[in-house]
Structure formats: structure tokens, C-alpha cells
């Protein structure tokens, strides 16, 4: 008698789709990219994060593609600064664009593709300095049609324009010492920005007599430096200073230092500032 044969069962082969990873439908991936999920990414890499106003800032923008092809209409670099808006006793921090540069033409970025766009930018002479913590940064923005635009921000340190550096050295030579520096909302004498930077100093023991405090509003140009000096500024504040309202008996001075004045050296500029502060010029 033959032994019993083991039971056998036949199994249908599993559907082929269960043996392979499922692919996300392309329309769904495009929809996610529009929401910023799986979209292109941007990273700006600066050669140096310190630049002098009027100098050159170099670096490159690294762009990496997402899960789906995307058309990049442009890449912009914005030089940004933060300033204060005063409303009675309240203060709000606002952001302003100092300058914008377009560094690319339209192109299509393929999935996972990587591109690097180098740049060299001339930072405006009137860029606010970051002494005492004034926030200034570079914002990189990709413009993608019908999608959230990827951005990147990089804080930078801005040194004074050479003409302003000479004035600051002259002010300190006269015995004034740093007190504060900040940007505040105001009409900066016909400039495009909605703010002006104010530099505050108090008199040290080297300074004899008034003024005891000094507010300096600098407007550097390529070949000159316009200054508004406020001596012992009263409670009317920055708006009255910019609009030309007399302050404390008219101790507000608006002067322009020429390239010749500035090139004469710190000592000569200190002498000019002394004549301004004493009301002799």
C-alpha cells in the first residue's frame, strides 16, 4: 500500500503591484510641491559674512530640485534691515528692503538637480551699520509659479563706509563715546528707505562743556557724507529732526563733508565737527 501523499495546495501568484513599491502619482507630487512639500530648496553661502558699506559681498546660491520639475522664474537677493516704528508708547519692529539684485534668468529645475549661481554685489554706501546689534541680512527668494517660494536668510555684519569711519573716529577723538545705534522710521531726506539710522554718543571727560550728548544721522554717498547732528536732543524726537523743526534753540546742524574734507584726515574732520558743535560753522 502506498503511503499517503502529502497534501499540496496551489497558490495564485500575488498581483505584481504588491511586489513593487508604489509610485506617487505625478499630479499629486506637483500638488505637494505647490504647498512647499518636496519643492526646490535654496541655500545661500557667503564668502564672508562681514562687509564694509560700499564694498563687495560675494558668494553663491545653491539650489536643489525637489520631487518634480519646477520652473524658476527668477532668483532675487534682498538686502534687508530692521527698523523701529514708534506709535505713542508702543514700538514695533518692521523690515525694509534696502536693495534688490536679480541674479538669474528663468530656468527649469529638474528633480534632484543641483545648481550653483555665483554672485558679487556692491553693497550700497548708505547700508546701515550693524554696530550695537542693528539687524541686517541677505534674504534669498526663488520665484516659482503657482507654488510657495523657497527662501533663505543670512545675517551679515556691516562695517561703516570709509567716510563714516573717519567721522566716527573723529567723534571718539573728541571724547564722545558710543551709547546706542538703531534704525527708526522716518523720512530720510529724500531717500527711498522708510527709515534712518541714528548713532548716539555721550560725552566723555575729555569733552569740555556742552553738548553732553550727540545724535548723529549719517547719509554716506560715494564721494561725500551728509550729516545731521543733533545736540542734546529734546523730546520732539527723530521726526522733527528730519523735518527740520528747530530743536532746543536750533542746535540741529545739517552739513556735507566733501571728499576733500574726509581725505584731510581724522584730526581735520574732528576740527570741523568741533566748529559745528560749538556753533561756529
Automatic annotation (TrEMBL):
It holds the Pfam family Spo0M. InterPro entries: Spore_0_M (IPR009776). It comes from the Bacteria. Residues 1-11 have a biased composition (Polar residues). Residues 1-22 are annotated as: Disordered. This is Sporulation protein SpoOM. It comes from Corallococcus carmarthensis.
Amino acid at each position: 500500500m502506498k503511503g499517503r501523499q502529502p497534501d499540496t495546495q496551489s497558490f495564485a501568484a500575488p498581483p505584481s503591484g504588491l511586489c513593487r513599491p508604489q509610485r506617487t502619482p505625478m499630479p499629486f507630487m506637483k500638488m505637494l510641491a505647490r504647498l512647499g512639500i518636496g519643492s526646490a530648496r535654496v541655500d545661500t553661502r557667503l564668502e564672508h559674512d562681514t562687509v564694509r558699506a560700499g564694498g563687495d559681498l560675494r558668494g553663491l546660491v545653491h539650489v536643489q530640485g525637489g520631487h518634480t520639475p519646477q520652473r524658476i522664474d527668477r532668483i532675487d537677493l534682498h538686502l534687508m534691515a530692521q527698523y523701529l516704528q514708534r506709535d505713542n508708547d508702543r514700538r514695533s519692529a518692521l523690515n525694509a528692503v534696502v536693495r534688490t539684485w536679480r541674479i538669474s534668468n528663468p530656468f527649469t529645475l529638474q528633480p534632484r538637480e543641483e545648481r550653483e549661481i555665483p554672485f558679487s554685489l556692491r553693497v550700497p554706501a548708505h547700508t546701515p551699520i550693524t554696530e550695537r546689534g542693528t539687524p541686517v541680512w541677505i534674504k534669498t527668494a526663488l520665484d516659482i509659479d503657482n507654488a510657495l517660494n523657497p527662501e533663505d536668510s543670512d545675517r551679515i555684519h556691516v562695517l561703516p563706509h570709509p567716510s563714516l569711519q573717519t567721522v566716527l573716529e573723529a567723534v571718539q577723538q573728541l571724547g564722545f563715546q558710543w551709547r546706542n545705534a538703531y534704525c527708526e522710521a522716518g523720512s530720510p531726506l529724500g531717500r527711498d528707505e522708510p527709515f534712518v539710522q541714528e548713532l548716539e554718543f555721550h560725552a566723555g571727560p575729555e569733552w569740555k562743556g556742552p553738548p553732553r550728548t550727540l545724535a548723529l544721522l549719517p547719509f554716506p554717498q560715494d564721494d561725500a557724507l551728509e550729516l545731521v547732528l543733533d545736540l542734546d536732543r529734546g523730546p520732539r524726537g527723530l521726526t522733527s529732526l528730519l523735518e527740520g523743526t528747530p530743536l532746543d534753540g536750533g542746535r540741529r546742524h545739517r552739513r556735507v563733508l566733501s571728499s576733500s574734507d574726509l581725505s584731510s584726515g581724522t584730526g581735520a574732520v574732528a576740527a570741523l565737527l568741533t566748529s559745528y558743535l560749538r556753533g561756529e560753522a
